[in-house]
Amino acid sequence: MTEARIKPGKPAVSCIGCFAWGVLPGRRCRSCSTFDRLHQVGECAACGRTAAIKRGYCRLCWLQASLQVKSDGRVYDMEPVLRELRGQQLFFFGMHRLRQPGPLLGKQGRRRPRAQAADASGKATGWIQLRLPFEVQHDYSGFDRRLHADLANPTLVQARLAARTFGEARGWGRWLAKDVDRSLVIALSGHTPDDTVRMSELAPMLRARGLGVERTAEILEHLGLLNDDRVPAFEAWLERKLDGMTPGISGDVETWIRVLRSGGPRTSARSPQTIFSYLNDIRPILLTWSSDNDHLRETTRDDVLTAMNVLHGSRRHFTLSVLRSLFGHCKKSGTIFRNPTFRIHHSGNDPGVILPLQPEDISAAIDAVTTPAHRLALILAAVHAARTQDIRHLQLDDIDLGNRRLTLSGTARPLDDLTHQAVLQWLTFRQTTCPNTANPHALINRRSAVKTSAVGRVWLTKPFWGLEATLERLHVDRQLEESLVHSGDPLHLAAMFGIHENTAIRYANAARQLLTTTAEDQDPASSNEPKGPTAL
């Protein structure tokens, strides 16, 4: 519907809806015309007129209640004000929503920037808040957009522009972009050029209002405005694990853990999972030693043997390896005089027997997957022997549908019909649900679609929890099956799956053991039935 135009020279009249006086396009003002189209006609509970009503009141009464609310202060519910109306204050048309010329900012373009005086250089000369010589905690909990929002702040304008650019590049949805914009308005209203945003103060308020913290922190960090003073999760975890140890032992352990995490001159950095498993494994031993010793230099060879005698198999091998790493670091740094793990041997790490999965276990895993993403992960593990880590970090560029090739861990493999169909189903689902995502990984979910990182391990493996046929077991079963088909040829396994030669030899030995056992079970000489001509 086109908007009615006002003819030049038209005389001023009174609106028959709200009685506003002015030059109107018709018998009603534009606001009353819209109000009449959206609401039904009835009797107003306040003034008693027969007109279009919203929740029992006409537009004139709503305007009067709004005027009284603005004069008294902010009130969330105007129903009590409407019930107490006893008169009307007439007004001119457009008087309740005056707009001044110039650019409009804010929600739906209704708010003007705050005026600032400027000198000849163009710099603002009005009163500004100077930076205090000491740190003051910023309280964001009482922020009110109507009262405290400063949409003309140059830093906020720059941040909102950067957020829109990020959102378009990362494929943010409408609601996520809106939440980030609200967070930036809260964080940067009244921001001064030499100030930073402390995340320990902003994050609790954003979570209380249901706003995202990670995306807001990404924008602030991009602009150099973020002061992430929150305690890292690693630091909190390390503090909990060192609790209960004597200062002499906890100091050496903390230094060793930090070297493992960041690396050293001749030490490569370990993954967080490796560090967690190291300290969790030997922590009971260290707590036991803390009850008798004040320092690791007081630990003797007998103490290590006593701790090892209660362990067996792979657990003993792993714990001894971790203790060797700890005492080796202490010996290198000079905090101990003698390594108590020196010349303590273990019986070897027996990997155990590799057994194939049963058909019912594989059927249970197939029934457990209900989404195209997890079905593709299942096929990659069961058909192409892909590890969980390889599936998580599979890129879109690794899938060549035209040439029907798939690259896993740097090894190109042909794309069979089953995998090709699963890939097409997942890519169609991905394009439908997340058409604007910029994540280069093949598998994404709702959280990773707005980022560029891989999906989490928990999300990928959760459908297989409690099953015998997990993704790792399917990966092992596929390599064992290939080894059985080719009579335990390790060269074929290494070339086909791109695995290390030691791993290929292990699978080859397991396949030969299974083939030998099967041949013995099927040997006619071991059967008690008559053979030869007498059997006929």
| Major beta sheet summary | 3 strands, antiparallel
Q: What's the assembly state of these chains?
A: single chain
What low-confidence regions span 5 or more consecutive residues with pLDDT below 50?
Answer: 98-105, 115-127, 526-536
Gross morphology: elongated
* Count of strand segments: 10
Helix percent band: 40-55%
How many distinct folded domains? 4
Task: Determine the mean pLDDT.
Answer: 83
Structural class by helix and strand composition: mainly alpha
Q: Rounded to an integer, what's the Rg over CA atoms?
A: 36 Å
Query: Distance between the terminal alpha carbons, to the nearest Å?
Result: 98 Å
Number of helices: 21
Q: In percent terms, what proportion of residues is strand?
A: 5-15%
Order of strands across the main sheet: 3-4-5
User: In CATH terms, what is the fold-level topology of the largest domain?
Assistant: hpI Integrase, Chain A
- The CATH superfamily of the largest domain is Intergrase catalytic core
The first-level CATH class of the largest domain is given as Mainly Alpha
Give the second-level CATH assignment, the architecture of the largest domain: Orthogonal Bundle
